[in-house]
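## Example record

The block below lists the input lines for one assembly entry, exactly as stored, with component labels intact.
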Amino acid sequence: QITLKESGPTLVKPTETLTLTCTFSGFSLFSSGVGVGWIRQPPGKALEWLALVYWNGDKRYSPSLRSSLTITKDTSQNQVALTMTNMDPVDTATYYCAHYLKAEQIFEHWGQGTLVTVSS
Amino acid sequence: SYELTQPPSVPVSPGQTASITCSGDKLGDKYVTWYQQRPGQSPVVVIYQDNKRPSGIPERFSGSNSGNTATLTISGTQPMDEADYYCQAWDISTCVFGTGTELTVL
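Predicted structure tokens for the full assembly:
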């Protein structure tokens, strides 16, 4: 059974850096064709893809947020982290991590999401 | 940047067929995934690679993709299908989600 869970601060101040951690089980980032991605959803709005890291270390970022995002993996710990710098109130959203299958091109399993509010 | 456009809302009566469209430039050249998101829940894949159903997804869900438009079709819509639906595709190395459609089962 594949599970993912996001963790991190629920409240950050404008200009601060956000770091979220995705801890997963039921699969390994040693496995070929597997990845973990981050997707966010502002309240009442659409899903927005942020970043993806593959089993082989390749990384992909949203072009519009590339300069503020860093995704890293700790394969032995079954964790993927996302860092977002210079947070703004518009970044208030539920942040999801998800298990990705490259062959099928799908985010097959999602975490429950964590709501991050950006406010002074 | 690449964009995927969906109608904001689609109403459907129980038992009828609902069609949700997703439009993007040369979308038919890409694989499209459809996600269902019920209120307060995380998204779930209902269709992938244009027309494949994951195990556990009812047969009433089907998909197609040609030209500039992909379509999610729900036949015999049930009240439990009321949710937001998002299409998703890759444009080179960028993942793009659609604008989302609220399916209302009246």
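Chain B has a mean pLDDT of 97. The two ends of chain B are 36 Å apart (CA to CA).
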